[in-house]
């Protein structure tokens, strides 16, 4: 049997695809749950390796961490290719939320050969820990997560308008503060961009203290901006909370037999179940 024939046989091996699908995408079977737990452990270990790699300078420790990270990256690469292989719709998975995250999580290590700093982007693997909700069947948490995402999506237009309003306001407030403070020789408000920076820091209640008014009028105006910041910061919270109340009044979602974040659809899941029944 030639190499091409072996490849064709592998790509058309439906029983193997079905078995891999149950292990990699599913969590109902002991093998599927064990694989997902192993995946979680590897992700957590990989994140800690990235953190420790930025802390230690001993070359032997760093070399050991790099080797271990390469081993884990090979495992994640195999996992990504296996998902593409056994998925009923490989392209839909590749373009799904987790498909993109899975690809991004393995690329930095390979790009690290060309761009050394790119390796630290692998902390994006932490996003994949969302799978824990599916692994342990915490449907209540998963349902709430989808409600939160839907609430944020529904609030996007209102929040965008609010953000534009705040942007205009900080520009105006920063300009006014520049007009008030620019006449004083010791004032740090030397230009309008610096004044706008101060307005942003003050309205968001961060208050670094690196730029402060020195005149009485400037301090009075700063006090008004601080109080204004406290009132404005509550607006987006109210917008999202309102949408979450609306979402909570909707009928609860059905049990998640498929994971849309993985690019899975009900049709593909039903087809896979049908194939499994037929095989049995």
Give a written overview of the molecule.
- The structure is a single chain.
- The chain is 70% helix and 0% strand.
- It starts with a helix and ends with a helix.
- The protein has helices at 3-11, 14-24, 30-53, 59-86, 90-94, 97-111, 132-135, 139-154, 156-181, 192-203, 216-232, 235-248, 266-279.
- The longest helix is centred in the N-terminal third of the chain and has 28 residues, at 59-86.
- The chain folds into two domains: 3-137; 138-257, Helix Hairpins, CATH 1.10.287.
- It is elongated.
Percentage of β-strand residues: under 5%
Order of helices and strands: HHHHHHHHHHHHH
Pairing-aware structural class of the strands and helices?
mainly alpha
Strand runs, count: 0
What is the share of helical residues?
A: 55-70%
Rg over C-alpha atoms, rounded to the nearest angstrom: 26 Å
Mean pLDDT: 77
Distance between the termini: 29 Å
Kindly give the count of domains: 2
Give the overall shape, derived from the CA principal axes. elongated
**Separate helix tally:** 13
What profile does the largest beta sheet have? none
Query: Which residue ranges are poorly predicted, with pLDDT under 50 across at least 5 consecutive positions?
Result: 253-257, 266-280
């Amino acid at each position: 049997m030639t190499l091409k024939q072996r490849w064709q046989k592998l790509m058309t091996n439906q029983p193997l695809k079905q078995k891999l699908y149950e292990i990699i995408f599913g969590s109902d079977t002991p093998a599927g749950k064990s694989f997902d737990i192993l995946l979680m452990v590897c992700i957590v270990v990989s994140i800690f390796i990235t953190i420790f790699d930025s802390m230690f300078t001993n070359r032997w420790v760093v070399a050991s961490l790099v080797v271990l990270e390469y081993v884990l990256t090979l495992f994640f690469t195999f996992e990504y290719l296996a998902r593409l292989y056994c998925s009923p719709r490989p392209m839909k998975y590749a373009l799904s939320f987790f498909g993109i995250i899975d690809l991004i999580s393995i690329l930095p290590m390979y790009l690290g050969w060309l761009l050394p700093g790119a390796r630290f982007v692998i902390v994006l693997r932490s996003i994949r820990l969302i799978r824990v909700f599916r692994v342990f069947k915490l449907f209540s948490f998963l349902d709430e997560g989808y409600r939160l995402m839907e609430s944020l999506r529904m609030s996007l237009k209102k929040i965008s308008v609010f953000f534009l309003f705040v942007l205009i306001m900080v520009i105006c407030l920063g300009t006014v503060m520049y007009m008030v403070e620019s006449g004083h020789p010791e004032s740090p408000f030397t230009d309008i961009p610096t004044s706008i920076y101060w307005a942003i820091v003050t309205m968001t209640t961060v208050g670094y203290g690196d730029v402060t008014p020195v005149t009485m009028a400037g301090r009075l105006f700063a006090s008004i901006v601080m109080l204004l910041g406290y009132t404005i910061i509550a607006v987006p919270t109210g917008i999202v909370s309102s949408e979450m109340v609306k979402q909570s009044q909707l009928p609860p979602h059905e049990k998640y037999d498929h994971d849309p974040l993985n690019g899975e659809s009900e049709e593909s899941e039903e087809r896979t179940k049908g194939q499994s029944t037929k095989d049995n």
